[in-house]
């Protein structure tokens, strides 16, 4: 059994402010006895426009946010999974990146979001992530951590079961969906998608989420969640943003084995393609 924590915050355009909020989450995670802390997509900053997103970006090795979190991880011996931005190959764009920072404060894994959120919802959010973000082109193979084998994705990737199934096939025990979901899509889809991904992959799902008002234009749904391989919601945060909050749950490798043994999902790859 290993305890994990999801952290929930409201990132703004101020990296210093966001780092301060994440330091609070680190303190709370350490106090809870968690062996790893999972933070949301874009924890380093959320800007109010594509050009502002690009203007704020720093290389990972010169980002005060990333350097500060690495120092926290090292001091507390606490691995941290966190979404940030990094410069794109094209200087007019950024990458939407997930980092694994180990207990020595080293960045050992990096994933670049492969599905970008381009939507135009009538009377709802209009967001064109691809205007300012470059899409990734590969799945990061699941990697060993003190809490289990982690398969990383980001936010909108949640709507594509293929990536979750591919990560499970490659050995993931835990699939992560660090997010900044919009309120209308979150209300309609967030929990059902997370539970579906947990049930169909028979894996733990850890989804740290942004919450509340980031700026005059952006609000996030919150409801960070940890779901077990049977689809049970083990821990959930709300939608209030008064202070950075964590929720924790135990990762039980015996339960993973039990669910996968009792309900074998033998895929008919003679009928449909293997993912
Ligand atoms: O903008 C940044 O800096 C950080 N990135 C995000 O917030 C991204 C792209 S706008 N948000 C999502 O993918 C929400 C998906 C969603 O809400 C859904 O699938 O319904």
Automatic annotation (TrEMBL):
Domain of life where this protein originates: Eukaryota
Molecular function GO labels: hydrolase activity, acting on carbon-nitrogen (but not peptide) bonds, in linear amides
Domain CN hydrolase, first and last residues per copy: 2-253
Compartments where found: Cytoplasm
Gene3D superfamilies (UniProt xref): Carbon-nitrogen hydrolase
InterPro entries: C-N_Hydrolase (IPR003010), C-N_Hydrolase_sf (IPR036526), Nit1/2_C-N_Hydrolase (IPR045254)
Record-linked Pfam families: CN_hydrolase
Gene Ontology, cellular component aspect: cytoplasm
Family note: Belongs to the carbon-nitrogen hydrolase superfamily. NIT1/NIT2 family.
Protein name per its UniProtKB record: Carbon-nitrogen hydrolase
């Amino acid at each position: 059994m290993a305890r994990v924590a999801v952290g929930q915050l409201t990132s703004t355009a101020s990296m210093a402010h966001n780092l301060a909020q994440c330091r609070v989450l680190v303190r709370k995670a350490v106090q809870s006895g968690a062996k790893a802390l999972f933070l949301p997509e874009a924890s380093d900053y959320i800007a109010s426009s594509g050009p502002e997103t690009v203007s704020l970006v720093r290389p990972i090795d010169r980002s005060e946010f990333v350097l500060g979190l690495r120092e926290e991880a090292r001091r507390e011996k606490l691995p941290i999974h966190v979404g940030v931005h990094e410069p794109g190959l094209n200087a007019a764009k950024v990458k939407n990146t997930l980092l694994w920072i180990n207990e020595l404060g080293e960045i050992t894994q990096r994933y670049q979001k492969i599905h970008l959120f381009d939507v135009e919802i009538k009377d709802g959010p209009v967001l064109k992530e691809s205007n300012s973000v470059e899409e990734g082109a590969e799945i990061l193979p699941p990697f060993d951590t003190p809490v289990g084998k982690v398969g990383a994705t980001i936010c909108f990737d949640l709507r594509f079961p293929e990536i979750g199934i591919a990560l499970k096939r490659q050995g993931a025990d835990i699939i992560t969906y660090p997010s900044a979901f919009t309120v209308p899509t979150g209300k309609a889809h967030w929990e059902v998608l997370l539970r579906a991904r947990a049930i169909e992959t028979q894996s733990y799902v850890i989804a740290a989420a942004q919450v509340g008002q980031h700026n005059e234009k952006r609000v996030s749904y919150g409801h960070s969640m940890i779901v077990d391989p049977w689809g049970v919601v083990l821990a959930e945060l709300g939608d209030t943003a008064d202070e950075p909050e964590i929720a924790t749950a135990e990762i039980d490798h015996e339960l993973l084995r039990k669910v996968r043994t009792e309900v074998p999902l033998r895929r008919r790859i003679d009928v449909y393609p293997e993912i």
